[in-house]
């Protein structure tokens, strides 16, 4: 087996943490000796042991660790956080070589983990499958590098390009399976946002009720505090925040975020401060267009359902790179990445 194949396995393990580790990155670790895996693990839960700790613990005969190679998808940490530094763990067990996919952008680590390993005489190689690693941890890297959450736009449109009828009487466009898939996606992200009209006309819950997984924190916009107090978004089942330019009201089940002027930049800045690394925006078209105009989006997931409306509210236009196109029980799912 090649270095690349072991790293592929470490990335595969890392991915199992999706939805459970944020705001930490997904990290996998495979420890190899004489071309055999002697232990592997991943960062399973926020606050829990790091990937390296789980991989080392999985090794039955710890003496095998001496002169082994560790494949880690992220630079081993050098800081005392919720756990002691992973770099020290690898040094203590006299690992011979450490192969790393990505450097850790977290200023608490940022190269210092690598330095610790090298200072202890361990061979370190960096950058193997680094593009795959960056895609896997795109939320984590975006949060550190762009100082804003990773933004996913999600909408469903008709074949003739409408996201709603003119009277908004068109809550469901995509099929049941597509909608379950959206619940899965919600479970993978930290937060979800909708605009005023979507909140008003769809009265969405924005939960993961058709999927086993955690609910994202909910955000909606109500500039002038005109929305009905009985909406699902105010049912208290999930922490929910309302962006408003109005007066702060004392209301059960809702936290207000007052902004002088609600803009995509201001929204993302507030959300970033809450250590939220990813945001899925689910409508409506006005909100999509304001984020698209400013280039403040990273990924768009678009369902095209086999219906036509003839007229209505137009779907947003994006110019991005098409990453994938597939059929989802009769709906077409297109995934785009911003350039
Ligand atoms: C690793 N291996 O599996 C992960 C790392 O609060 P803590 O102690 O869990 O530390 C979180 C930081 O540690 C996180 O921001 C990132 O820099 C690094 N994550 N490092 O060596 C791992 N998950
Ligand atoms: Zn660590």
TrEMBL record:
Residue stretches making up the CMP/dCMP-type deaminase domain: 1-125
Keywords assigned by UniProt, alphabetized: Hydrolase, Metal-binding, Multifunctional enzyme, NADP, Oxidoreductase, Riboflavin biosynthesis, Zinc
Record SUPFAM superfamilies: Cytidine deaminase-like, Dihydrofolate reductase-like
Pathway terms, separated by semicolons: Cofactor biosynthesis; riboflavin biosynthesis; 5-amino-6-(D-ribitylamino)uracil from GTP: step 3/4; Cofactor biosynthesis; riboflavin biosynthesis; 5-amino-6-(D-ribitylamino)uracil from GTP: step 2/4
Cofactor: Zn(2+)
Cofactor note: Binds 1 zinc ion.
One Pfam family, short name: RibD_C
Entry's EC annotation: 3.5.4.26, 1.1.1.193
Annotated catalysed reactions: 2,5-diamino-6-hydroxy-4-(5-phosphoribosylamino)-pyrimidine + H2O + H(+) = 5-amino-6-(5-phospho-D-ribosylamino)uracil + NH4(+); 5-amino-6-(5-phospho-D-ribitylamino)uracil + NADP(+) = 5-amino-6-(5-phospho-D-ribosylamino)uracil + NADPH + H(+)
Superkingdom in the source lineage: Bacteria
Protein family according to the UniProt entry: In the N-terminal section; belongs to the cytidine and deoxycytidylate deaminase family. In the C-terminal section; belongs to the HTP reductase family.
PANTHER family: 2,5-DIAMINO-6-RIBOSYLAMINO-4(3H)-PYRIMIDINONE 5'-PHOSPHATE REDUCTASE, DIHYDROFOLATE REDUCTASE FAMILY PROTEIN (AFU_ORTHOLOGUE AFUA_8G06820)
Protein name per Swiss-Prot or TrEMBL: Riboflavin biosynthesis protein RibD
Organism: Marinoscillum luteum
Gene (name only): ribD
